[in-house]
Each structure stands twice: as structure tokens, then as C-alpha cells.
Design a protein that fits this description.
The protein is an alpha+beta fold and 133 residues long. It has three helices and four strands; from the N terminus they run H-E-H-E-E-H-E. The radius of gyration is 23 Å and the shape is elongated. The protein has one domain: TT1725-like (Alpha-Beta Plaits, 2-Layer Sandwich), CATH 3.30.70. Helix content is 29%, strand content 29%. It has helices at 10-13, 55-73, 100-115; strands at 38-48, 76-81, 88-97, 121-132. The chain has a four-stranded antiparallel β-sheet, covered by helices on one side.
Amino acid sequence: MRCPTKPPSKKHRASRAYAPHANQHTGRNESTEPHAIMVVGILQFEIGIEYAQSLKDKRRVVSSLKDRLHHDHMVAVAEVGSLDDPRKALMGISMVSNDVSHCQSVLDRIVDKLRLHRDCVLNDFAKEILTGR
């Protein structure tokens, strides 16, 4: 059986014209929007984990928070600082969208969720929305 992405062999070229598969990239910009916009939302925040006595206690809270935020909001989450301090974690979130208001809304919901989290205290946060073409 012939692979649909390869051109036909010489004996089949005369009988059929080669056409790329429908999902194959042809190198053309096939977007229906003339100027598609890309929006990147960034949220950096610091949480305090008051009861943590060890890095293992901190890891439990951070891991649970990372998994929950990723699952609920489809964002990328990472611990980016204060790695050796068991009572503090500096974390970063990023997301990509095509709508500024959607990106802002998701980041606002995440901040609200962090303020109400039972295992940690939101100490500080900074939000940034980047747009480009």
C-alpha cells in the first residue's frame, strides 16, 4: 500500500496526478483571518505555606496546586523560584489564546482561586498580557 504523503511512483504518474493529503502542510497560510492575533498571558505569583516543615510538605502543596490549575484552566504551571525555602514558593503560569479578554478572564479566575486556597496564602502576584501578530 502506498503512503498518501509520498508522490506516486513513476508507473502511476501517468495515470494519476499527485495531490497532497488534506491535512498535509503545503507551506501556504490557509488562515481565513487576514491578521490572526496571538495573545500570551503570564501570571507570576508567590504563595506562603505556613505549616510546611520540610520541602516534602511544600512539594505536596505545590504539586497539588500545579495539577489543579493545569486541569481546571488548561495553563502551563511551573515553580520558578524559592526552591529551597519550605514555606514559600514562587510560581509562574502561562497561556496562549487569540482573545485578550479571554486570557485576562482566565488569569483573574486563577488569582481568585489562589486567594481562597486552603493550603496556602497568596502573598503577591503580577499579571502581564502580551499581544503579537
